[in-house]
Amino acid sequence: MEITDSNQSMIVCGESGSGKTESAKHLMRYFAYNSKKKDNNAGSGGDDTKESVAPPKPHKSGGDDDEDEGFQVEEQSIEKQVLAANPILEAFGNAKTILNNNSSRFGKFTKLVFDEEHPPGGTPHDSSQQHDPDAPPRKKIINPKFICGSFIETYLLEKSRVCKQEPGERNYHVFYHLCSDGGLDKATRDKYYLEAPDKYAYLIGGKTYTVDGINDPKLMKGLSKSMTSLKIDAEQQDQVFRIVSGVLHLGNIRFKPLSADSVAVEKECEVTVNQCATLFGVDEKALTARLTTRNITVSKQVITKPLSKADAEQNRDAMAKALYNGLFLWIVYKINRELFPVEARKDDLKVRVCGSSSSSSSSRGRSF
User: Fold this and answer.
1) Number of domains in the chain
2) Residue 297 domain-assigned?
3) To the nearest whole number, what is the mean pLDDT of the chain?
4) What is the CATH number of the domain that holds 293?
5) Is the CB of residue 307 less than 8 Å from the CB of residue 315?
6) Which of 44, 39, 51 is nearest to 143 (CA)?
């Protein structure tokens, strides 16, 4: 990228369990560690200084070294924020499968946008610098690059996993982080009505609640730190965890048939409906109606039709999957909003549409 002054791409591919997620994380750490920090004294002889990002460390199987991936964030540098996005996406988008304890259940395209420092008197491509055509060719000036932004595109989150897992697998990590002993204090757990993982219908399918090498309480605390570093404040985090907890409780709502084509919520599940309504911030009666009936619009007239038991269960699961998918997309949006500065967006638009970037008077963005 520095030599050719053009965009570069790397594709990390392989079969399930081959190490794509870990390889991508090490690549991100490499670029963050080697990224040059723009010197505030540029032009006055000051040396470039590297951001205080720890160098890549050997991988520890399981996931405990996720703390190195952005949990210990003291400064809000762009390099550290880029790394802090990894544990957030892993918590909400990764899960244990038969072949892999930390499998990404969505497609991801990460774009790193670099800027460069120009030497005094012009840039390597400044055509105004005239020289003798008979003189020997000058050595190409390579300016150091530093990360100035990042953008993440996600594809096809595995929504079916929210409601069902195969034996030996787990749901998304964040559910177990929340339910783990020590991940949240008792008052917070009570606020979300949380219990042990084996109490939830959406978590018992795989019959696997803990994973060797994955410390759920520790990762829960680290997740909150990483979200804070990306400007997801305490109030927004509370809303996120309310939705995650609400999705868990949705799965525990059961229905009893009133007739062949109508149902009601079972008596013992009415408390669960109340908890879901509280967590989602909606009216309990409206939620009950949404779970047991559907609206059909005919000639501008809305007709309410009851659901059968099978339809009500599918409707409940569809609601849970839609809520979780929407939450995941919102989290990605929040990360991009913080990591993708306006000046990088302007240049990157040309990169994505035209396939090449162009320089402006103030910035020469390059994507990787």
Assistant:
1) 1
2) yes
3) 80
4) 1.20.120.720
5) yes
6) 39
Rounded CA gap, 275 and 261, in Å?
26
Which of 180, 241, 169 has the alpha carbon at shortest distance from 206?
A: 169
The pTM for the full model equals: 0.78
The least confident of 37-51, 96-110, 202-216, 300-314 is 37-51
Asked if residues 225 and 175 have their Cβ atoms less than 8 Å apart, the reply is no
The pairing of beta strand 49-50 with beta strand 103-104: unpaired
Q: Residue 37 in contact with residue 51, Cβ under 8 Å?
A: yes
pLDDT by residue (tens digit) across 5-28? 788 888 888 887 788 888 888 888
Give residue 286's domain range.
Answer: 251-310
In a 3-state reduction of DSSP, which class is residue 82?
Answer: helix
Domain assignment present for residue 340? The answer is: no
* Helices and strands (H and E) in the chain: how many: 10, 11
SS3 content of the chain, % helix, strand, coil (to 5): 40, 15, 40
Number of Cβ within 10 Å of residue 343's Cβ equals 16
Instruction: Kindly tell me if the per-residue pLDDT of 309 is higher than 90.
Output: yes
Identify whether the C-beta of residue 90 lies closer than 8 Å to the C-beta of residue 173.
yes
Q: Which two tokens stand for residue 206?
A: 């795989």
In a domain, 255, yes or no: yes
List pLDDT tens digits, range 161-214.
999 999 999 999 999 999 999 999 999 999 999 999 999 999 999 999 999 989
Three-state SS letters, 265-276: ECHHHHHHHHHH
Identify the pLDDT of residue 76: 56
Q: Which 3 state secondary structure label does DSSP give 243? A: helix
By CB atoms closer than 10 A (0-12, 13-18, 19+), residue 143 is middle
CB 90 within 8 A of CB 24: no
Identify the three-state secondary structure at position 5. Answer: coil
Domain assignment of residue 258, yes or no = yes
Token code pair at residue 220? 């829960």
Q: How many angstroms separate the CA atoms of 86 and 339, rounded?
A: 12
Which residue, among 344, 308, 288, 320, has the nearest Cα to 159 in the 3D structure?
320
Q: What is the pLDDT of residue 71?
A: 38
| DSSP per position, 275-330 | HHHHHHT--HHHHHHHHHEEEEEETTEEEEEE--HHHHHHHHHHHHHHHHHHHHHH
Q: Name the one residue in this structure whose structure tokens are 């757990």.
A: 189
- Contact between residue 73 and residue 232 where contact means Cβ atoms under 8 Å apart: no
